[in-house]
Amino acid sequence: MAEHERRIVQECAVRLNNRRYVPADQAGFAALHNLNQCDILIAYEPGAPEDAAALDLDGNFICALQSEELVRFAPSDPHTQSLISESMRQRRHLEKQTREALGTISLVARQNGALSPLEQMAGGCNSPPIPIFLT
């Protein structure tokens, strides 16, 4: 792809030249979800704005992108409502997967003896007092 531009990932999507690009598949949505509020490179062809590629800042491929269908602001339009609800469903699913992964990491860490910062502080309070000698 001929052109590269640096953009910030927002809500699993990026904006470029008055277009909003979203991943072409589920793996891409998961990758961009993990990169929310991070800079990435967008590789694209100016003559073919429908497709693009997301790259990390070193130029490594992250996922394929496609131009999202933009809808007009029409809260009562059934088509608009279905597109919005599908987008929100997808984002809720990704957030749930992230919460579950963090829960699994936390469980494994606890099984390996890790303590939370609060437990570490409380553990310090239970230690015997240090004697102070006055002269």
What does this structure look like?
With 135 residues, the protein is of the alpha+beta class. It is 39% helix and 27% strand. It contains three helices and six strands; from the N terminus they run βββαβββαα. The protein has helices at residues 26-34, 78-111, 117-125; strands at residues 3-8, 14-16, 19-23, 39-45, 48-55, 61-67. A hairpin with a 5-residue loop joins β5 and β6. The mean pLDDT is 83.
Quickly describe the structure:
By secondary structure, the chain is an alpha+beta fold. The protein contains three helices and six strands.
- The ordered H/E elements are EEEHEEEHH
Fraction of residues in helix: 25-40%
Alpha-beta classification:
alpha+beta
Q: Biggest sheet: strands side by side, in what order?
A: 1-4-5-6-3-2
Provide keyphrases for this structure.
alpha+beta, 135 residues, 6 strands, 6-stranded antiparallel sheet
Describe the secondary structure blueprint for this structure.
Blueprint: E1 3-8, E2 14-16, E3 19-23, H1 26-34, E4 39-45, E5 48-55, E6 61-67, H2 78-111, H3 117-125
Antiparallel strand pairs: 1-4, 2-3, 3-6, 4-5, 5-6
Helix pairs in contact: 1-2
